[in-house]
Design a protein that fits this description.
single chain, six-stranded antiparallel sheet, 7 helices
């Protein structure tokens, strides 16, 4: 499904629309607003610039497909995902949208496998920070190892098999990790 179709579905009057994308459901623009403001899902909202739509700015949020009935038990399955009909007031949407854009001062660029433009210094700094965090976490776990039996879905395994450093938006990695984290026992 093209982004134009996703945006069109997401802005239908009185509907919350969740588009199925891999192992996640994504809500764009108005649907992201409804999901966070009416259903208080407290999901991280990401902004993006869509180059093929004349650099139009959009926002979206996502959650793992396995959580659909927990998060929105009355949602209805469609050919493209799920929807929920309601009487949603959108008069504050534009203010919310502009606030999201202002909070996300570094817009995520539209990334394709053929044309990835990285700031080398930024990437190296990010990698060093991640390595330090991972090293710290690994050292903590070496002191007191904990074992969990977690079963990955076919989609999660496929994602891991195809994953390559630098070819994935941060929100996708965060959502993937969150989908696995849901299987961990609650403390």
């Amino acid at each position: 499904m093209f982004i134009e179709e996703k945006l069109s579905i997401s802005q239908r009057h009185n509907y919350l629309s969740l588009i199925e994308e891999g192992i996640f459901f994504r809500a764009y623009n108005q649907s992201a607003y409804i999901l966070n403001q009416y259903y208080h899902q407290d999901l991280k909202v990401i902004s993006n610039v869509v180059k093929k739509l004349n650099n139009q700015q959009i926002v979206f949020c996502a959650f793992p497909k396995t959580q659909i009935k927990q998060r929105l038990p009355h949602s209805v399955k469609t050919e493209w995902g799920y929807e929920l009909k309601g009487n949603f007031e959108l008069s504050n949407f534009q203010d919310w949208f502009e606030n999201i854009l202002s909070l996300d001062s570094t817009y995520i660029k539209n990334i394709s496998n053929k044309n990835v433009n990285h700031d080398v210094n930024f990437s190296k700094k990010q990698e060093k920070i991640l390595q330090q965090q991972l090293s710290s976490t690994m050292n903590d776990s070496l002191v007191s190892p904990i074992f969990y039996n977690i079963q990955l879905t076919q989609q999660q395994l496929k994602f891991l098999h195809k994953w390559r450093r630098g070819n994935c938006l941060p929100i996708i990695m965060e959502n993937f990790i969150e989908s696995i984290k849901q299987q961990l026992p609650k403390n």
